[in-house]
Design brief:
Elements (H helix, E strand, L loop, with lengths): L1 H19 L7 E4 L5 E5 L5 E6 L7 E3 L5 E4 L3 E5 L5 E6 L5 E7 L5 E6 L3 E6 L5 E7 L10 E6 L5 E5 L4 E5 L5 E6 L6 E4 L5 E4 L6 E4 L5 E5 L11 E7 L5 E6 L11 E4 L5 E5 L2 H4 L4 E4 L14
Antiparallel strand pairs: 1-2, 1-24, 2-3, 4-5, 5-6, 6-7, 8-9, 9-10, 10-11, 12-13, 13-14, 14-15, 16-17, 17-18, 18-19, 20-21, 21-22, 22-23
């Protein structure tokens, strides 16, 4: 009888480990609003590399040439692993830069929140190759925009942080699609199937919208046991169909839940980051052990 009980206990422990996803491990780069540094962490969560994040880093990417591009509220930088600054954009006074992504053509896409809000494509020499005014009713730069992305069709997905919508702009600045949402649009990503994945911030939701505007997959605030959605920030759709969610702990939720977790399509947690002491307030993260180039749009984040 003792052997049977021991076997059952071991079985329960193994099932618990499987349910919490500890058999899955990832190397990643991360930062966030409230973190002091950008960090690269190994599969065990140990920090391999760090760099000062600036005032507020809500967008960071490790590119295929091992350089690191990030926004820091007051601007954006491209740095090497040797911590040499290779490129820098300094935002104008009374503005914020909350997004920076490398494009396939080598230009860097940013949005400068302010009056007016400006979407810019800038080359490595600092020359502005494209500039669009993005209309917004919000006067406060911090209330305007977070992560923006270019789609494979070279349109721009722009989430309105305090206006409950995501707009898709063509290359001339015309709105070609509006997606209403419930919450703060932190990140909007065009997936390989043509759907759009949207992180809804303090709406405590993650949604996937098809081409007709229908919600085809959602994750709601209290849907996943022991993993309530707080502020849903940067997200990444992995090649296996799983989704990694930055569950930012600001607005009263610090230390209350996993900072990041990965779920399957049927919403099972298979991996998480829950280390507030070392890693802090993560709002942007890139999984590094998947194939593809961020600058080619292969990583869906």
């Amino acid at each position: 009888m003792k052997q049977i009980k021991s076997f059952l206990t071991l079985t329960i422990i193994l099932l618990s480990l499987h349910a919490t996803g500890q058999e899955v491990q990832h190397r990643f780069i991360a930062s966030g609003s409230g973190m002091k540094n950008i960090v690269i962490a190994n599969e065990q969560g140990d920090i391999e590399w760090s760099y000062p994040a600036g005032k507020e880093c809500n967008d960071v990417s490790l590119l295929s040439d091992s350089t690191i591009l990030f926004s820091c509220s007051t601007g954006a930088k491209l740095v090497s692993l040797q911590k040499e600054v290779l490129w820098e954009y300094k935002g104008a006074p009374n503005t914020e830069v909350q997004s920076a992504s490398m494009l396939r053509n080598g230009n860097i896409l940013i949005i400068q929140n302010g009056t007016p809000a400006l979407l810019k494509e800038i080359n490595r020499k600092g020359k502005i190759k494209r500039e669009l005014i993005i209309p917004t009713s919000m006067k406060n730069p911090h209330a305007q925009f977070r992560n923006i992305r270019q789609t494979p069709d070279k349109t721009y997905l722009v989430g309105y942080f305090r206006e409950n919508k995501v707009c898709e702009f063509d290359r001339k600045g015309n709105i070609i699609r509006t997606i209403p949402i419930k919450g703060n649009a932190f990140a909007s990503i065009r997936l390989s199937n043509g759907n759009t994945l949207i992180a809804c911030g303090d709406g405590h939701r993650l949604i996937e919208i098809d081409k007709e505007g229908n919600e085809v997959w959602t994750v709601e605030e209290n849907e996943i046991p022991d993993h309530p959605l707080r502020f849903v920030a940067n997200v990444q759709r992995l090649p296996n169909g799983n989704t990694v969610i930055c569950n930012w702990g600001g607005h009263g939720h610090k230390n209350g839940q996993a900072q990041v977790f990965e779920i399957t399509r049927d919403k099972k947690v298979v991996w998480e980051v829950n280390d507030w002491a070392r890693l802090g307030m993560i709002s942007t993260l890139q999984i590094l052990d998947v194939e593809g180039k961020m600058e080619h749009g292969d990583l869906f984040r």
